[in-house]
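Hello forum,

I keep getting stuck at the same step: I have a sequence, I want structure tokens, and every attempt I make locally crashes halfway through. Rather than fight my setup again tonight, could one of you with a working pipeline run this one for me? It's a single chain of 239 residues.
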Amino acid sequence: MSPKTLKVACSGCNLRELCMPVNLTSDDMVKLDELVATRRKVKRGTALYSNGEAFTGLYAIRTGFFKTCLVTEDGRDQVTGFQMAGEILGLDGIVNDHHSCDAVALEDAEVCVMPFDGIEKLSREVPALQHHVHRIMSREIVREHGVMLLLGSMRAEERLAAFLLNLVQRLHARGFSQSELILRMTREEIGSYLGLKLETVSRTFSRFVEEGIVEVKQRHVRILDTDALRNIVNSSAGS
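Reply #2:
Ran it on my machine without issues. Output:
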């Protein structure tokens, strides 16, 4: 494909409000369009970048779903997060100019490439962009704190309920249903992220089905009782 074919304009993207500041001037948008000039397609199961790879830029997910993961000392794949359209990948590389994890596509995906040198330079000229980059970094810190809380103090059913509520909330912000979702990740990957064994994840899903909280057909999940999920999560706070 020629560079011309891969040209993308942030100004015309329907995900712009999710991954870019909303209060840029038309001149600022032109500068941003020139900077974020290419898309990159990533096939399901392949890595956008790998642990140890040189850091050159950030990636805004245009379509598709990713997982970030690390290989532990004993050779296990430890999932550290799931990312979807409108979210940013690559922040892990800023600290030492090398990526510290793998970012793997869970389905065929497409990302917008944002060269970091250019983002830094443009941020100095456009305060709104600089503020937005800081917000993205702050959001990632808050997310990591949330995961630590999840793994440190919650029972299996609380972890899975919080995971489902978070996932459907993020999908709803992108125009999807508030109660139905297709899990792009496997039960094993969910378990790795939540610090649970595969059997525990499957057993907890079955319990939610038996109690009429969710309906599960392979990877399709329909939430029948959102309040019940919230009560499960909140039970730890009240105990």
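Residues 127-153 form the longest helix (27 residues). If your local run keeps crashing, start a new thread with the error log.
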